[in-house]
Amino acid sequence: MIDQRKSLERQGIRRLSSIQGGGLLLICGLQTVLGFALLPLLRWVPELQSSSYGASLIVLATTVLTICPGALLMLRLLSPLESNNALPFGRPFPRADGKRWLLCVALVFAGLAACFAGSLVSALISWLAEEAGMVFESPEFGSPTNIPMLLAELLAVALGPAVIEELLMRGAVMQPLRRYGDGFAITMSALLFALLHGNMVQAPFAFVCGLALGYITVRSGSLWPAMVVHFINNGFSVLVSYMNNYYSEEAVERFSSFYVVVIFVLGLAGAALYWAYSQPQPQPRYEPAGKRAPRYLFGSVPMVIALLYFLGSIILTTTMGN
């Protein structure tokens, strides 16, 4: 009986590896095709690249046209029960009616503090790389110079990724994996989330943030709190970029430092409130034995090819920066 359960668990993990690897491969392919398609378009219409509105449109279109088909393919290949449970859009903390908003706010602030911790990890890795003579490159986004441009940038860099990337990573990827343990599901989705960014500046940051966003989703029972954290975190970067056009560097640094201190304090308070008022959450029915991560990451050809693509993108980006 135990051997049969282990065999079913291995088959289930490899099946999800194949399905989700196929979805990631579709994303990789669409990114490549869209990248080549944009080259002649940018030559014919150079205003698209020079204009802040055009750049925002390109970023948003790239996010939608590459990630959404991959997520839809995963959902289509899952079983009906898995696909129905993959996008939890219900109310957060359905069992805590009286304290729902308190728990949501607490987890959002704790998640933002975790994102700040991720930025520290990323900064440390970048500093160590520079000491070793390497420079990590990351994508550069436009600097909005007026309110309409700011709103366009918030839509492209903050709201779009907050919704679409959470649908993919904390929805289509993480939720089906939870039957094999929440820790396993959160870690694998965070790892893929990091690799999806394709560069060594954002990858460590995205991994730490992915762990926090996955935990928030699991504990709240909904995608909404993680989307809010994702939006605020990305939106702050856009706001700072906007402020650089109107305020001195010293004033922007003071504002950023104030934000960091406030988020750190509120994050600690949020974590304390969550642990004080949260109710025990239902646990997975069983934790599978064996080495789950290698079976998932290397258990199917589509997943292996997708991982090689992501790693190749990171190596190429790093090489080009040096």
What does this structure look like?
The chain has helices spanning 2-44, 47-50, 52-77, 80-85, 100-131, 147-177, 182-196, 202-220, 224-243, 249-277, 292-298, 301-320. It is built from twelve helices and no strands. With 322 residues, it is mainly α. The N and C termini lie far apart (55 Å).
Topology:
Layout: H1 2-44, H2 47-50, H3 52-77, H4 80-85, H5 100-131, H6 147-177, H7 182-196, H8 202-220, H9 224-243, H10 249-277, H11 292-298, H12 301-320
In brief, what are we looking at here?
This protein has twelve helices and no strands. It has 322 residues and is mostly helical.
- What would the average pLDDT be, to the nearest integer? 88
The class by helix and strand makeup works out as mainly alpha
Low-confidence stretches: 283-289
SSE succession: HHHHHHHHHHHH
Query: How much of the sequence is in beta strands?
Result: under 5%
Query: Helix tally?
Result: 12
- The count of DSSP E runs of length 2 or more, i.e. the number of strands, is 0
Biggest β-sheet strands, sense, barrel = none
Share of helical residues: over 70%
Q: How far apart are the termini?
A: 55 Å
Rg calc: 20 Å
The coarse overall form would be: globular
Features:
322 residues, mainly alpha, single chain, globular, 78% helix
